[in-house]
Amino acid sequence: MLIGGRRVPSATGGEFDVMDPATESVIARVPIGGVEDVGAAVDAAEEALEPWASMSPRERGLILHRAAEMVRTCADDLAITLVREQGKPLEEAHGEMMGFANAMEFYASISGAIKGDLISLPGIGEAHVYREPLGVCAAIIPWNVPALIMAWKVGPALVTGNTLVLKPASTTPLTNLALAELLIKAGVPSGVINVVTGPGDTVGQALASHPGVAKISFTGDTATGRKVAEAAAPTFKAVTLELGGSDPAIVCDDVDIEKVASAVVKYRFYNCGQACTSLKRLYVMDTIADEFIASLERKVEALKMGNGMDPETDIGPLNNAPQKRQVIEQVRATLESDDGVLRVGGWNPEVPGHFYPPTLITEVDPTSRLLTEEVFGPVLPVVRVHGLEEAIGQANGTSYGLGSSIWTNDVDAIRMAREGLRSGMVWVNLHLRVPVEVPFGGVKASGLGREGSMDALMSHLRTKTVIHSR
Ligand code: NDP
């Protein structure tokens, strides 16, 4: 844990194991935080608030900029820490560190946008609109992309003059702790960023209900997000929820089949399929479906599963045992009820580590769990469709609405998809890529509020309007 700028044990002195998901060996032990530790972290963040908030946005931005440079310098070591606790291939982990640095630089670069307004009010006088930080903010981080999601929460919270208490996922606390320490080395004052490790249902809930926390930003499962929002409601916290997704992709019949099949494989199997906005359901026009599926089959079969530290590895293990059990169960339920045809994968490797092979299932029935639930693992379900209207109808047929994509060069089809797809993001001939410059978030059960861009910056500020009479 990191409270008031120092590594500290928990109030009870207890610790839990952090495991390597590729070997299931223990790689570290970290404190089991509880309600008392959350209280101490919020106190430290409150104490640090006034001096941090009264620095100029530019000064705070310069510190974030320095942190970005330090992350770039230490990216190799940070990436190894991430691979060892999360499981992803080293190259992906390295890319995530670059994403962290980019986000810090982006929020440093727009620090000048934090300013007030002067509104002339004829007959009355004039209004001065001040923009102030919210206070102590809390961030709950998941295990799938822990560095990047931390950056999306830390960047806008800190540059706007808020202080922060962060709760990492219990399977990936090491990267978040290392990055928080690095921010402190870059000049973030003691107490401005604090990290409390420990279980979600105690540490996470204590943060969500703490009266001293002004805003809570959560990324994770939809059911957990609901609990966070409920705990935050009595104290009227601002809430940002980035929840699950079951992103559809629609492939039209004018595409370059080899090229688009490669892209589909890339955006489904990145991070072993464990991204909120992975391409999770594929709808292919019937006229090209046979050729497209044959190409997918070759490409999925060629993916190499292994330890993320091996440079040959395309796909690492799942992050944790419950995650693997859930994916096995979703595939089993589909195949047992004849709701799909297994083309590649679908077996359970009898090796240490939470490995599950890249899996391709076609002719999937709309009622299959692979289409109605979020599948957070390396499984690609494929459905044949007979026109764009049918494809958009099926694409919209879940409770989720995070991202979606259309693959075509037909401008009418693109317009129809843009207008018809009910999701916070729509990609055209792309999927999954979310640069920090754009607003990111979902509709329906995929969440509330936006991360990234000026939207995230503004959601960490409140206005105070002062009207002067003439
Ligand atoms: P969770 O939502 O449980 O975990 C995400 C974060 O929330 C972790 O830091 C976790 O802590 C914390 N948390 C857990 N319970 C609570 C609580 N009651 N109050 C506050 N915080 C809490 O996700 P899981 O790890 O259980 O994954 C389950 C499913 O969620 C996946 O299969 C996937 O479908 C989805 N998911 C989606 C993500 C996304 O990016 N949208 C990311 C991760 C998961 P701790 O680790 O200590 O439990």
Describe the structure.
With about 475 residues, the chain is α/β, with parallel strands linked by helices. It has 2 domains: about 270 residues, Aldehyde Dehydrogenase, Chain A, domain 1, CATH 3.40.605.10; about 180 residues, Aldehyde Dehydrogenase, Chain A, domain 2 (3-Layer(aba) Sandwich). It has 15 helices and 20 strands. The chain has a 7-stranded mixed sheet with strand order 14-15-16-13-12-17-18, sandwiched between helices. Strands 9-8-7-10-11-19 form a 6-stranded mixed sheet, sandwiched between helices. The radius of gyration is 23 Å and the shape is globular. The mean pLDDT is about 100. NADPH dihydro-nicotinamide-adenine-dinucleotide phosphate binds next to α7, α8 and α11.
* Helix/sheet category: alpha/beta
Q: Could you name the ranges where pLDDT drops below 50 across 5 or more consecutive residues?
A: none
Determine the mean pLDDT: 98
Summarize the biggest pleated sheet. Answer: 7 strands, mixed
- The separation of the N and C termini measures 53 Å
Strand order in the largest sheet: 14-15-16-13-12-17-18
Count of separate structural domains: 2
- CATH homolog superfamily of the largest domain: Aldehyde Dehydrogenase, Chain A, domain 1
At the fold tier of CATH, the topology name of the largest domain is Aldehyde Dehydrogenase, Chain A, domain 1
Which range does the strand content fall in? Answer: 15-25%
Overall 3D geometry? globular
Q: How many β-strands, per DSSP? A: 20
Which architecture of the largest domain would the CATH scheme give at its second level? Answer: 3-Layer(aba) Sandwich
Radius of gyration: 23 Å
